[in-house]
Amino acid sequence: MSGNRIFRGSIAEQPKTISKPVTGALLPGTFVTIGASALAQATTPAGRVGILGGRNFYNQDNTTAYTSGETGIAYRVEPDLEFQVAVAAGTYTFGQELTIGASGRLAAAASTNVVVAFFDDASKAGVAQSAGALCDVVIANSYTKA
Question: Quick check: 123 pLDDT over 70?
């Protein structure tokens, strides 16, 4: 599935959002930590995390980074919701377990990693993805991979 929306679900299941200033040049579709006063780039699945929505929210611009201090909108992640999220460079399989890695991008989960999502982009499964490519994922009920 391709498109320009970060949230991929239906209008009937709209996720809740959180608006706070961002702490740097952050790209839409990346994971952020939701702090008391700001959204910061997540690099691990620790703490409260969300997915940064399209810049300016209304026009769904997913290619222009937010600037430090600008108000960002993060989606609250809940199991089974579908999002288009940036991934690390690699080749993914449909249903593959993913964790949060560098630059807030999802990467293949290894043993002992916390699984936060599953790769759900049939059209991109088995195809090498460049760093930052936006791919469809389904949020997992987080768990530690054995």
Answer: yes
First to last CA, the chain: 30
Verdict on whether the full-model pTM lies above 0.70: yes
Is 144 within 8 Å of 112 (Cβ atoms)?
yes
- Distances in Å between the Cα of 110 and the Cα atoms of 54, 82, 134 are 29, 22, 21
Spatial contact of 40 and 20, defined as CB atoms under 8 Å apart: no
Structure tokens at 81: 């919701």
pLDDT tens-digit series, residues 3-14: 557 888 777 778
Query: How many CB atoms are closer than 10 A to CB 91?
Result: 12
Per-residue CA distances from 58 to 5, 53, 90, 95 (Å): 10, 10, 31, 30
Closest of 88, 48, 86, 61 to residue 40, by C-alpha: 48
5: alpha, beta or left? (left if phi > 0; alpha if psi -120 to 50):
beta
